Each structure stands twice: as structure tokens, then as C-alpha cells.
Amino acid sequence: MDWLVLLYNAVMLGVDAAAGVYLWRRRTVPAWLVATTAAGVGAVLLAVLLGLAGRGFTVVLLAAYGLFVHGSLGMLLSAWILWPARRGAATVAGAIAAVLIAVGVDGFLIEPYQLDVTRYRIVSDRVERPTRIVVVADLQTDKIGAYETDVLREVMWQKPDLILLAGDYSGEVGDAQERLWASANTFMRRIQFAAPMGVFAIRGNCDGEGWEAIVKGLPAKAVEHTQTFDLGGLWLTCLSLRDSLNTDLKVARPTSAEFHVVMGHSPNFALGAVDGDLLLAGHTHGGQVRLPWIGPLLTLSKVPRAWAAGMTELTGGRRLIVSRGIGMERDRAPLVRFLCRPQLVVIDLVPGSPQE
Questions:
Q1: E strands, 213-276, where?
Q2: What's the rounded Cα separation, in Å, for the pair 161 and 153?
Q3: Phi and psi of 282, rounded to 5°?
Q4: Is residue 344 within 8 Å of residue 116, measured between CB atoms?
Q5: Which of 41, 81, 284, 351 is the residue whose CA sits 20 to 30 A from 88?
Q6: Is 287 left (phi over 0), alpha (psi -120 to 50) or beta?
Q7: pLDDT of residue 356 exceeding 70
Q8: Residue 355: pLDDT above 80?
Q9: What are the tens digits of pLDDT across the range 156-166?
Q10: What are the angstrom distances between the C-alpha of 167 and each of 33, 225, 333?
């Protein structure tokens, strides 16, 4: 916890106390509304002001403390103060506190570690034989712990023919990032991380120089620059980070007879003239926080928000699948997922008519 977080929470405790004293002296519903509004506005303004001294997602991190910590505390305090004289308002305050606490527990403690293994079945007359592809996107962690090792074991339990690693392997920088790559590499060697058609890894926007170390010594191919591979009945194009971000990218089909998979870290490339049967990406984390009827709040991508997770039918019979990823945004971002569980994507390619 850095000094900005400590300062924010210290000041907000003062705001909570002042709002509580104000409400205690009046104990009316209007006073409660005034105290709640003032505390909420103060929490937002303070998050913005202190956020300017930080970097990245600092404002979001501080706002999360304001909502889930101080919002819950303020509502519980309000319920206690109002209960003797204003039981209806006290009940409402208690219910709001319960919702905030429940969402906070789910978003910060439960959902980030509830892996969803999502399966897709794609039938195509370009597929020569049944092929299972497992996509691992955005491991994005600060340690290789029990959750991360369980995910990598799950990849092998799926018995994939082809494993695709879509970038962003670490949430660290510098030496810490290198140590994490080494730790992941050691574990993958231990479980014999491999697939008959190969393991292919591309670079994500959070991966520094030397990212290839994560698959060093494994039967895997680290692809830094855009390349196309003939896997025998299946063509795979791995995009460079820069090309994956290019909304005007052009990728030709190697052959009209065989299935063509195109993988990039960001889904932006799907807006270009990419002639592939299946386009794969990560990067968006599915938004990490999704709201009912609204969807993801932030995708960090230029594709429509509806494309930020799951499978989307594109023109020309193409399909885009964007993984919600395994990990979470790090650094100054709050470690939260809400209505957006981490995801391992399993795709079964099946020969036959697309109408089957």
C-alpha cells in the first residue's frame, strides 16, 4: 500500500467521521442524504486530485477504496445512527451496505479466482480433422501461485492439439518480471507443457524485452514478428504486438482449402482486412468489470464493446473470439473482477458443413 492510498484512506476516515457527527446531531433523513452526498462527492474529488499525482489506474484504485471501504462504512454507520428514530432509512442504509460488501467480496476475493473453461465448437469444410485449440490470454500476474499453476494444469487436462499463448504474461516490471517468467517456465517444464501441433506464444503490451524466456527450453515457438505457419491441414498466423493493434491491418489467406487461424494480442486487428476463418485475441480482460445491461466499463480496445469478450460473427463467415483472460490489470489498478470471471478458451474445430 503506497503513500497515495494511505493518504486517501486517512483523509476519507476524517470525512466519514465528520459525516457521522453531522448525522448524529440531526438524525433525520434529509441530514442523512446531505451527509451521504457530501461524503460521496468528497470521495470522488479526492480520488481525482490524488490520482493526478499517481499513474495509470490510480484514480480508479482510489475510487474503489472510496466506494467499497468508505461507502460500506458510511452506510453501516448511518444505519446504526438512524435505527432508533428512522428505521426505514436505517434499513435502506443497511441494505446498501450489504450490497456493497457482497459485491466487494465477490469482486475482490471470489470471482478473480473462479476460472471459467469456455468451450466453442466450430464446424467447417476447411477443417481436415478434429482439432482442439486452447487459448491462454493475459496470465498477467505478480506470482506463479496455486491459482496460476491450476490454470496451467487445466490447459494440459484439456488434451489440446494446439496451445496458443496470447501475451501479457506478467503484471510486474524489470527484474520482478524476469523472475516471474522464470518461475512460470520452470513450472511448465515440470508439467511437460506441450501439444502435438505445437505451442505458440506472442507478445503482449505488458511484456518487456526478453519475454520469450517464458517458453525457453519448451517445445514452443515465441513469435515476435508476424509469421504464418503451416501446421499440416491448418494455417496459423501469429501477429506482432504492433500488427495486432492495427485497425487497418491486411492479412491474406495462405490457401483457400485449409482453415486459417489468426492470433493477435489486441482484437483491434479484427477491424482490418484479415482473411481468416478464426480470429483470436485477448487484451481486453472482457472489461474485468461488467454491469448488467451495460457490459464492460473499459476495454482498452478500438473494437465495439460487444466484441470485447466471447465469440462474434464477422463478415465473410469469419469468427472472432476474445478471451476474458486469466489474470487482472496490475500496477495501480484495483484487483477486481465483477460479472467477468477469468477464462480459459477451448475451441474444437470439427470437419463438416457449417450448417451441421
A1: 220-223, 227-230, 234-238, 250-251, 259-263, 273-274
A2: 15
A3: -135, -125
A4: yes
A5: 41
A6: left
A7: no
A8: no
A9: 999 999 999 99
A10: 47, 13, 19
